[in-house]
Automatic annotation (TrEMBL):
GO annotation, biological process: methylation
Catalytic site positions: H258
Top-rank taxon: Eukaryota
Methyltransferase as UniProt keyword: yes
Gene Ontology molecular functions: O-methyltransferase activity; protein dimerization activity
Name of the featured protein: O-methyltransferase
Pfam families on file: Dimerisation, Methyltransf_2
O-methyltransferase C-terminal domain location: 128-336
Keywords: Methyltransferase, S-adenosyl-L-methionine, Transferase
Native species: Rubroshorea leprosula
Domain O-methyltransferase dimerisation: 23-106
Family statement drawn from the similarity comment of this UniProt entry: Belongs to the class I-like SAM-binding methyltransferase superfamily. Cation-independent O-methyltransferase family.
InterPro entries: COMT-like, COMT_C, COMT_dimerisation, SAM-dependent_MTases_sf, WH-like_DNA-bd_sf, WH_DNA-bd_sf
Amino acid sequence: MEETKRVAKLSEEEEAHAEVEIWNYIFGFAKMAVAKCAIELGIPDAVGSHEIPISLTELSSVLGCEPSRLHRIMRFLVHFQVFKEKATSQGTTGYIQTPLSRRMMKQGENSMAALILLETSPVMLAPWHHLSDHVSSGTFPFVAAHSVDVWSYTARDASHSNLIDEAMACGARAAVPAIINGCPEVFDGIGSLVDVGGGNGTTLRMLVKAFPWIKGINFDLPHVVSVAPELDSIKKIGGDMFHSVPKADAAFLMWCLHDWDDEECIKILKNCREAIPVEKGKVIIAEAVIGEEREEDDKLDFVRLMLDMVMMAHTSKGKERTLKEWDYVLTRAGFRRYNIRHIRAASSLIEAFP
Ligand SMILES: C[S@@+](CC[C@H](N)C(=O)[O-])C[C@H]1O[C@@H](n2cnc3c(N)ncnc32)[C@H](O)[C@@H]1O
């Protein structure tokens, strides 16, 4: 009898949870869309640069926005704790920033604005409409939406290529401090480091600053490195990682292998292995490891699963990998041993030795 009651209570709780949770599936996109709107209007920057609480009237005038519509946007963002309300010196309601709104500012150490703008861009949203076709018949969502794959698209569209570089730099700003603080010893004794698919060089700039003995090589497609900023102690080389990788003591790959299927990954990893010395070289990979139990409180598990869906929508055959899948590609690429370190980020750090 007790068991029957317990089962009935559980199903009642599940029903109540579903009644609420279903709305996240119906209107979940609204959070992303309003964040995009706030970034485009410069709301987080305007609130952040005001030293005291900013009233709706002041905010409307700074942004040149119609107050009643802006009020509705602010009410939404306050509800979801992007901003807080605080009384102004005139006793009216004002807005102040929070750690979340700081991450939506266009510039700054914590800015994730470009990543939000990339993921909400029409180019990146269109492939999601083809996800079910991909699962049933294997057509590539990005190709179905745009006729070419994402890298061919970026090669011919400089502004989208720039948006991807800026967005990846946001990811780097979130992950690289966790690497630097979590396992600095990984970079001991490395004289030169090639960042394969290094984008605009943000990752390498942070690594070289933290470990100044490293000479960095930023290696990416020619159209990417040609517009990447010139940086001291970082050499830029344009090329194709499927052909060869520039020589260095160690190769680094972040959010790069997940864009490709196992055979493509094995090819890239073999080229990295050839680029480093056999005795003391290593390949350092910063990528998600799906489904791994972590000792510390891990709140980013959902991010890894979301990234896997993003790979499905935006790349042709990319995916996030489980430990077993990493083992397969690393072993097939000829690495004798590897270790995995969990850091305070969605990615883990894999060191692979030739
Ligand atoms: C998802 S981004 C990661 C960027 C960077 N590692 C980061 O985490 O900020 C993948 C990078 O791989 C580069 N890429 C794609 N195909 C490539 C190729 N065949 N050779 C070299 N780089 C390539 C892209 O241009 C892009 O910068």
